[in-house]
Structure formats: structure tokens, C-alpha cells
Amino acid sequence: MLSDAQAVKQAIELKGVRNGERIQLDLIRRYWKGIQRLPEVIPANAPREVRTMARIARVNVCAIVVDVLAQSTFVDGFRAAGPPDEDGDNAVWDIWQANKMDARQTGIHRAAFAYGASYAIVLPGDTAPVIRGVSPRNLTAVYGDDPDWPEFAFERRSKTLWRLYDKEGIYNLRPTSQSSEFELIGPPMAHGAGVTPVVRYLDEEDLDADDDVTADVMAYMDIAKPMRGQIAPLISVQDQIDLTTFALKGAEWYSAFRQRWAIGWKPDDEEQKVQAGASQLWTFDQSPEGPDGMKLGEFGQTDLSGYIESRQASMKHVAALSQTPVHELIGDLVNLSAEALAAAEKGHERKVDEKKANLGESHEQTLRLAAKLGNVIVPDGAEVVWRDTSARAFAATVDGLGKLSQMLGIPPQELWQRVPGATRQEIEQWKEAAANSSAFDELARMLEAESGAGAQVTVNG
Questions:
Q1: Do 206 and 274 reside in the same domain of the chain?
Q2: 38: helix, coil or strand?
Q3: CA end-to-end span of the chain
Q4: Measuring CA to CA, how many Å separate 358 from each of 12, 354, 363?
Q5: Domain that holds residue 277
Q6: What percentage of the chain carries pLDDT values higher than 90?
Q7: Which one, of 184, 115, 154, lies nearest residue 13 by Cα?
Q8: Distance between CA 276 and CA 297 in Å, rounded?
């Protein structure tokens, strides 16, 4: 265990690391939730309607990219080779269910996709180990030689409670009157994990993450350090979409309608001016030459199609950069067959498979640590089972599974987990029903055989 002084010193150091990361994480959060700053081209003294148009001109596509990925990654089970009861994967899955991870896994996935990393904390509990997802905005972890387990982790639980984790214990701290100092609350608590009980979930594996571009390049790009995740590469395109939408709104407000003008006439009072404004009439206080002394005309309305096409082109750029199906961004989906839809989402499916590989290893690490704290044995070959969310036609999938069973001799029950949308609970119910059905079928055959034998004896007699 760390001494009080060592724990406080480590907490202060990690608080400094966190402060350096928080600026960029907050920037990503703003773009994720569609509350990014207004375009800087808008003057500070712009009219109220201009600032209102800029505020409503945010068309948030970053959130769509994160949502599409999160809605394609659901863990539905945990399996190992051999009978489930002997290998202990049912007991591990019970821990998953006790922590309501069917729903809470999405928070871990979304944070990993948005920020580039997220975390799960695994600690002993009263009835089962406790698994809790944490955003990188609230937890900072530092790693040494072991890339799987951090040396220390520092979590902000509330304004008055912080936690430091190491491989031996948990240290509760609170800020002192000096904002940069901490003091311990009570004695440290041992967790018995043998490692710092924090698992990191990465959006992508980057072997150069600890040796990135030089400081002069980052200064040129006006960033403190390279940002990770799905949102960071889209910030500039998101700004372009917002600016194009702002120009579209300005054109709609000021010049998308026909406007009339009159030279040689001005309203006599304010009421007349309001009436003229309501009819979109422009007036000029000069008398043109001619017998009437007045001239009327109108301006043509602005063509908005260029703005709309520009915004759609930017959204298609987002789709290409993020491998998001373009119809998810612009809604351009008309009478597509299942095969055409699957082809349109092929690149997205490849990306989802990569994310599942990264997140799956982290989930398995989390469950193995939870199993250790719950005194459950889990073999090395255990793995999580992902839900199939692809756009393949259901009938085609079932037909393919049937051919696998008939032509290759794979037992049908081993293929049930590949049925799209089937959850672990449903598969267990199917297996139980099949076992009961088999037992009743065997009993019926025995009774039928005994009945036939008795009838034969009677006839011979």
C-alpha cells in the first residue's frame, strides 16, 4: 500500500495529466453533442437574427457516426470450449447480467468511439464483482511496461470525491482549500485484484501512440496533442457543414423570396413602412427620369440548390472518411433490396469487425478479472459473442446455416448462436426445449415399442 504522502503525491501528478487531456476531450464532447462554437466568421456585433441562424445551423453529423457504430456492437454472450457449467462461462455471464451490462456496455462503446478510449473498473462487491464504465473525461490512467494494466488510475467521482487506484488498493481523496492539493479520506482499501483494476477500451490500436508527431507539427495544427477517436478527424468537415448551413439559412432569410423595389417613393410614416416591409418592397429616395417620376421592379430569388448540394457533398465526404453508410447521413434510401443494402454497408461491416476485435479483447479482460474476484475459473479460450447486426437477408442467412448443417455435418444446435438477433437467453431456452422434446420423443418410442411387442405376443398365442 502507498503511504498517505505517496498517495497524495501520485494524485497531484495524475491531476496534472488529466488537466492536459481534458481540454481536447471537452472539445470532442462539444462536437459529439452538437454544441460546438458558432462559426468564427460571424462578427461579434452581428444582428440578433444572424446569431440565431448561426445557432440553429449546427447539423450534427458526428453523433450519427458514433451512433451507427454503437448500434452495431452488442455483446450477447460469453462462451468457452466444452460444457458451459464445467468451464464456468455461465457463472461469468451471471456477473455480466448482475451488472446490467446488456445496457451499460453501450456507454463504454460510445465513449471509446467518440474519445478514442474508455474504461471499465472492476471491484469486489457484496454479492458479485462490480463492473462500472467510466469516461476518459473522468478517469486518467498511466501505463508502464504492461500495456494491459495501468500502473495507476485516477478517477473523479464527484466534486468532493476522487479515487486513486493501484495494483494493491483504493485510496479515497478530497480536494483541500488549495485546489491543487488533496487529502486522504479514511484508510486505503485492498481490492485483491493483483493488478490496477481498470481495463482500457480502445477505438483503434496505434503502435505510434506514445511516439507521435513532433511539437512543431502540433503547433502548426493548433493542437496540444493528436486526438483519437471517430470525431476528431471529422471536426473540420463538421465546421464546413455548419458554415454551409449558415449560408443557406442566410440566403433563405434575406434573398430566397422575390423582392420588389420602388424608386421615387418612400413611406410617409412607420405604419406604411411596416406594410411595405411585409410585402417585401424595397424603396429608394431618388426620383428617376420620366413622366411618372416613379419606377417599379423586382429582384429574382436566390437559387438555394448550390448550398444544398454543397452540404450533401460534405456529408458524403464524412461517409467516406468514417466508412459510415451514406444513406445513414443523408437518408437517400429508396427501394433497395437486401443484397443491395448489404453491398452498400460492406465497408461499414469491415469497420465494425475491426472494432469488435478491439472491444472484444477488452471485454474478455474485464470478465476474466471479474471472474477472478468472484472465484470463478475461466479458460484462456473463452470469448465474447457479438450480436449479428448486418444487413443480410434473414432468409438467406437461415438457408446458409441449414446448408452448413446438412452438407458439412455441423450439429444444428452449434449454429443457433449465428441466427441474427438471437440472444444468449433465447438460445438457452431453445436448448432446454430441444432437450425436453428429445426426452419425450425417446419415451414415446419406448412406449410404442413395448406396445408393439405386447400385441405380437397376443397374436401368436
A1: no
A2: coil
A3: 89
A4: 31, 7, 9
A5: 258-300
A6: 44
A7: 154
A8: 14
